[in-house]
Amino acid sequence: MNHPINKIPVAVLGATGAVGQRFVQLLENHPWFYVSTLTASDRSTGKKYSDACRWILSDEMPMSAAEVTVQPSAPGFEAGIVFSALPASAAKDIEPAFAKAGYAVCSNSSAYRLDPLVPLLIPEMNPDHIALVERQKTEKGWKGLLVTSPNCTTTGAAMPLKPVHEAFGIKKVFAVSMQAVSGAGYPGIPFLDIHDNVVPYIKGEEEKLEKETLALLGKMAGGKREDAQITISAQCNRVPVFDGHTVCLSLELDRKADIPEIIQSMREFKAVQIGEELPSMPPFSLHVTDKPDRPQPRRDRERGQGMIVTVGRVRPCPILDVRMVSMVHNTLRGAASGAILNAELLTAKGFIG
Ligand SMILES: NC(=O)c1ccc[n+]([C@@H]2O[C@H](COP(=O)([O-])OP(=O)(O)OC[C@H]3O[C@@H](n4cnc5c(N)ncnc54)[C@H](OP(=O)(O)O)[C@@H]3O)[C@@H](O)[C@H]2O)c1
After folding, report:
1. What is the pTM of this model?
2. Using a 6 Å cutoff on CB, does residue 73 contact ligand 1?
3. Cis, bond preceding 297 (omega within 30 deg of 0)
4. Residue of the nearest CA to atom 22 in ligand 1?
5. Ligand 1 centroid – CA 88 distance (Å)
6. Which of 44, 48, 42 shows the shortest CA–CA distance to 1?
7. What is the mean pLDDT of the chain?
8. Most buried residue, 100, 112, 211, 245, by CB count within 10 Å?
9. How far is the C-alpha of 293 from the C-alpha of 5, rounded, in Å?
10. Any residues with CB less than 8 A from the CB of 219 and at least 6 apart, and which?
């Protein structure tokens, strides 16, 4: 691999999987980072990346990655940032080992998302939660650090909720998801289970959506994260869509608002000012459509290179107050691109190096 001057070397853990491949694709021409190391499980270690990885993306595998030898997922190589696309079971021991050894870990796994000392970040929503890193270093005794990105469905739900919660306060959320097959990783769910079908169970998903949303909408107080006080009921379903998770949301508000006001709050949603420009930050993060039959995964998931969440069908709810449909690209904004944006935030704020 090239070693470009003035770029930060980064590693991808779990580089052969569905999210790992997205990292490799997105980091190919990143202005600040270059991929120096790719890791995976014992199954892949020692093989060329092109032999170990069944590439599932439509673009070609980057030439710079194809010839790289896959390394074990353990500290011992040069990298300023380590992107983790490991299953939670593997991440549980591997991610802290990297943080302890001095690496900055940006994780997509669920293993530490709800750890009170680990920031769960969407930079437009809660960049101030990064302050937990200071306590993490002293209380966990790590030379490096660990920040996490939310579950992909949580991202699609929490982003439109943020401006509505800020403007009117949210008391209750009823959420029903329709989640793409790429969310299950590779090889994922068997064709004979998902073709012509809907599977009304995704292990652990409803709990993630219910708990992580509260952390993301929570506030920092006295150096601690205080979760938002919202009651959330989630039902998660796997549907035969390749990429793009859809979430139908019904909300009860603290302060009653009419539909145009709610739409306006989302259209005017601006990223929390962080003072620096980040290369992966989209010009706006929410697109609210008036079209009666949108959002749709196939038509809306690529908006803003997959970084913009599309919201539509904002209308009164006869049970709660307002309902809407949100759609997020699960392996881009909901996974690899979201973690890269977190790494850019850490870099801009001086946490790397
Ligand atoms: N897919 C999504 O839309 C999405 C969205 C948000 C978050 N996530 C999270 O991101 C993570 C990765 O998801 P994925 O969908 O990419 O999964 P995946 O396709 O199953 O890929 C898993 C990767 O981890 C490696 N791996 C597995 N066990 C390992 C071990 N014990 N030690 C080291 N490496 C190991 C695999 O390597 P081998 O190829 O060598 O087995 C592979 O590279 C998960 O935590 C998932 O929950 C996924």
Report:
1. 0.96
2. yes
3. no
4. 17
5. 8
6. 48
7. 96
8. 245
9. 48
10. 225, 226, 228
